[in-house]
Amino acid sequence: MKFSYQQWQKLRGLRKFFLSGEPNHRSYWDSEEILALYDQTFAVRIGWRWDAAIRQLQFLKWQPTEKTLLDWGCGSGMASRKVLAAFAQFENAFLIDLSPVAEGYAASMAKAESPATSIRTGILPEEPFCLVLSHVVGELDEAGEQHLAQIVARASSLIWVEPGSYTVSRKLGTWRDRLDWPVIAPCTHRQSCPIPAPKNRHHWCHFFAQPPPETFMSADWAEFAKQMEIDLSTLAFSYLVLDRSAPPSRTPEIARNIGSIRVYKAFAKLQLCDASGLHAVEVTKRDFPAIWRALRKGWTPDLVQVETEANRITKWHDLAGAPPPPPHGTGPVGRGAAL
């Protein structure tokens, strides 16, 4: 990342807009240079979010059945490239953005990485398609949401990844409840999302992606973190995957851990979401010493099956298996970075 002062300024300008929460009425993709700068920096971090979401789908043994993909609001095309790399059945990919420059850049990158896939830009597919959405909900005004609703209505499945901020996550939850489709992830149930309940007003559905270990040994990424004032170890995201053709039944006793974990001297606090709602639970060092030590070192469980007494976990089964703690950082805390 040997960028000039002017290039760093362009990246700062992008970040400032992304964090503003303002609707995007005109494209900021006005040149291939800015797209290339973005694709080497912010888009890579977005790709790590997509990697984390796709790993969960692979664990659930779910994949899209369509042969056509639509990346709406494609930007540099990182999202569609990740999906095309993960699911080999796609024969066609359609890329749409406010900016023809972005469409062209995204198409060229997709063709280079997925040469067997037919890549087209600027038009909607007529056949059933998997809709890919990435980092768009924060840029939509009311008219933009109505336009997106028309696109969503034509899709047969949906993979949607967003930053893990409080506001964006709750907007994504609103979309989840308004779309009456079978939910693949992150929900383990078909009931309404419990997050909007007044008692849960301080919570939001978000997770943490782990950057590759080599990121923390890279002088380039260290410079990027310094220039953008970003904590590389904290990468929060929210996501939503729906499939019209999926069976509606789910296993109600399975819960998903959401948000940050608070680790104290003798116990740790988690937020588990399942068919009965959102639950604040504790896992004690005395009952589960290995789990407590892993949590203290930064490990984050995902899907779990537990039994509790008075909000204290008495039985624990981690459905994804407990990986070793990450080698860098002390684990995610707080709200996480927006980009």
Description:
The protein has nine helices and 13 strands. Mean pLDDT is 91; it is low at 324-338. The protein is globular. It folds into two domains: 5-243, Vaccinia Virus protein VP39 (Rossmann fold); 255-318, OB fold (Dihydrolipoamide Acetyltransferase, E2P), CATH 2.40.50. It is 32% helix and 23% strand. The strands form two sheets. Strands 1, 2, 3, 4, 5, 6, 7 and 8 form an eight-stranded mixed β-sheet that branches. A five-stranded antiparallel β-sheet has the order 11-10-9-12-13, covered by helices on one side. It has helices spanning 5-20, 32-40, 42-59, 78-86, 100-113, 142-154, 166-178, 219-228, 289-296, and strands at 68-72, 92-96, 118-121, 130-134, 157-163, 183-185, 207-208, 236-243, 255-263, 267-274, 277-284, 303-309, 312-318. It is of the alpha/beta class.
Rg over CA atoms, rounded to whole Å, is 20 Å
User: Distance between the terminal alpha carbons, to the nearest Å?
Assistant: 17 Å
Structural class: alpha/beta
How many strand elements?
13
CATH class of the largest domain: Alpha Beta
Helix content: 25-40%
Largest sheet: 8 strands, mixed
For the record, the CATH architecture of the largest domain stands as: 3-Layer(aba) Sandwich
At CATH level 3, the topology of the largest domain is Rossmann fold
Q: Which ranges are low-confidence, i.e. pLDDT below 50, for 5 or more consecutive residues?
A: 324-338
